[in-house]
Design brief:
Strand order of the largest sheet: 8-7-9-10-11
Helix content: 25-40%
Number of domains: 3
Mean pLDDT: 92
Radius of gyration: 21 Å
Order of helices and strands: EHEHEHEEEHEHEHEHEEHEHEHEHEHH
CATH architecture of the largest domain: 3-Layer(aba) Sandwich
Structural class: alpha/beta
CATH topology of the largest domain: Rossmann fold
Shape: flat
CATH superfamily of the largest domain: Diphthamide synthesis DPH1/DPH2 domain 3
Distance between the termini: 31 Å
Number of helices: 13
Amino acid sequence: MTLDFEKEKLIRELKKRKPKRVLVQLAEGIKKYAPEISGWIESLGIEVIFSGETCWGGCSIAVQEAEALGVDLIVHFGHAQFIESKFPVLYIEVKDFLDLKPLLNKSLKELNKFKTIGLSFSVQHQHDLKNIINFYEKHGKKVILSKKLGHVAYEGHIVGCQYSGLKAIQEQVGAFVIIGNQFHSMGACLAVEKPIVLIDVYNDKIRSMKGIREKILKQRAFSIEKLREAKNVGIIVEIKPGQRFGSPKILLEKFRSAGKNAVVITMNEITPEKLMNFYNIDAFVELACPRIALDDFAKYSKPILTYKEAMIALGEKTWKEALKTGFV
């Protein structure tokens, strides 16, 4: 694995913007490169501070940290821009130069019976898109990129909470190929009903997501039923600007109208340890990243649901609608 941190772009932008102090956010897998990046920035006479908080996506902009520290600019490495921010942010996407051909060859076995495939990729592989498409076309496949809808940065780009681009092409393809990791493919298998083949570049594996959808749907149905039965409900609101889904005020009113005791709780990051302190809460609805509820089912002792799932429990939406529109 060879990573390109786009040093020239970084230096060029910093010289142009002339910040005195910057806060650097690094995606989880690249925090070890902090000393090297620090040297590049400090060589320009700029003070640099690194955020030690988790950074799972472009939605995770550390605006409150930046304001508290009095920095002039956030430099966000490892993700594409997700939302517009009033606070200045410089996104450095980071390119991952891997030889994907061995994995692409392995994927052909799983894709043998499909003539047309939908293709989506995490942003680190956007630079390699032409080569990926050429490979599949040489092996008789027609490739259709997922659409640039929602907050994705490019055609074919995939992020954890945006799957409308895949839904838009699912009637045109026989299967989807996801180049990234299980996080991306799990969300995709909930959003579309076509077969999903994951090219897991960091574990060097090809994986069919067959059966995963059914397992997760059973977990979601269980959580929804637990929320229906709950007397005390916690509504969790993330304070990060890119991780706010739904209205806590509306949800609070609906729960209370349904005879439930409901409270609103703010968190910068949701963890089992934090939720344990609210031991009298029977179920939680999180209005942060919907993937917290979907991916970490076994991690929490109490059920956690998304906004859409809460609407099902309250009778505002149907299970059938959720299957059609998705849980994220």
